[in-house]
Amino acid sequence: MTGVPASAAGGSGAKPVRGGKLGTAAVNQASLWNIANILTMVRLLLVPGFVMLLLHNGGYDPVWRSFAWAAFAVAMITDLFDGHLARAYNLVTDFGKIADPIADKAIMGAALVCLSVLGDLPWWITGVILARELGITLMRFWVIRHAVIPASRGGKLKTLAQGTAAGMYVLVLTGPLATLRFWVMMVAVVLTVVTGLDYVRQAVVLRRRSLAAERAAVGRTTEALNEAAGSPGAGVADAGAGAGPAAGASGGPGASGAGASGSAVRVSGGSTPVEPTVGARDGADAER
User: Are 248 and 272 in contact (CB under 8 A)?
Assistant: First the structure.
């Protein structure tokens, strides 16, 4: 729920970060069955179990909803731990990059939809939160070629507020606690909207900077190739390679000769002006 795939944080899995507590055998390479991925799988498996517990006996049994809350709490805790382990150790796999954000969205989405179906949570709250989460996820894929948007403090607070509020709604609360959970959910909604807009701003800025840097790099490369293609030294080298011995005699048969690249040398009065050839320019254009 932090916006950064937990198993994607870190490097290639070759070296553990200093200060890590796991043995070297556990972090020598980022295999599929590393601890971060296992926690992600546990969270995925908890989603259907959580839904069945929450909706058992019509969804209004306080005991079964307490069991559902326990499953939800375990899922939220594993989200914190697999993220920490993936950052502390270089546990990176393609599975983790895909499964971690799916697991985050699945458990929260399941909780919100079930609570709205039971009538405990207004549908507009569920719609706002799910639209934001889906939109930001798609936006990350849109800008991933240019840059990675890091999780902000606001995003982490949003995740904490959402988890706390949803967990309070899963429990059967009455009186002041029921009022409190409503305001906690309102805080979560505000943080959801504000951080979503901030992520959009970051994405637009990062994409513009990346495109500007790419254009500048292409411009510098093109300029350097143009300078190399039009430099006098390059023309002399081409002329010398194709003129032959006869080019040194003024007015002789070798006064004009064609080089390998099609360059022409004209000798007049001892001076040898060299013209850049079309062939050389064409070669430079091909490189570009």
Answer: no
Q: Tokens 């991925």 map to which residue? A: 37
Tokens 């800008």 — which residue? Answer: 143
Is there a contact between 94 and 37 (Cβ–Cβ < 8 Å)?
A: no
- Ordered mean pLDDT values, 10 residues apiece, the chain (288 residues): 44 43 43 82 93 92 95 90 75 73 89 96 96 86 69 82 95 92 96 91 81 82 83 50 43 41 41 44 38
Angle between helices 62-88 and 35-55 (to 10 degrees): 170
Would you state the structure tokens that stand for residue 218, as one six-digit string? 């292409």
Closest CA to 281 of 253, 254, 262, 255: 262
Strand partners, 271: 268
How many helices (H) and strands (E) would you count in the chain? 9, 0
* Token output for 214: 């790419």
Within 13 Å, how many C-alpha atoms sit on residue 106's CB side? 20
Cα pseudo-dihedral 169, 129, 191, 181, rounded to 10? -10
3-state secondary structure 77-142: HHHHHHHHHHHHCCCCCHHHHHHHHHHHHHHHHHHHHHHHHCCCCCHHHHHHHHHHHHHHHHHHHH
Distance, C-alpha 73 to centroid of its chain: 28
- Whole-angstrom Cα distance, residue 46 to residue 105? 13
Determine how many CB atoms are found less than 10 A away from the CB of residue 163. Answer: 22
Q: Estimate to the nearest angstrom the gap between the alpha carbon of 158 and the chain centroid.
A: 20
Tokens of 40: 């992600």
Task: Kindly give, in sequence order, each residue whose CB lies less than 8 Å from that of residue 70, ignoring residues fewer than 6 positions away.
Answer: none
Q: Which amino acid is at 179?
A: T
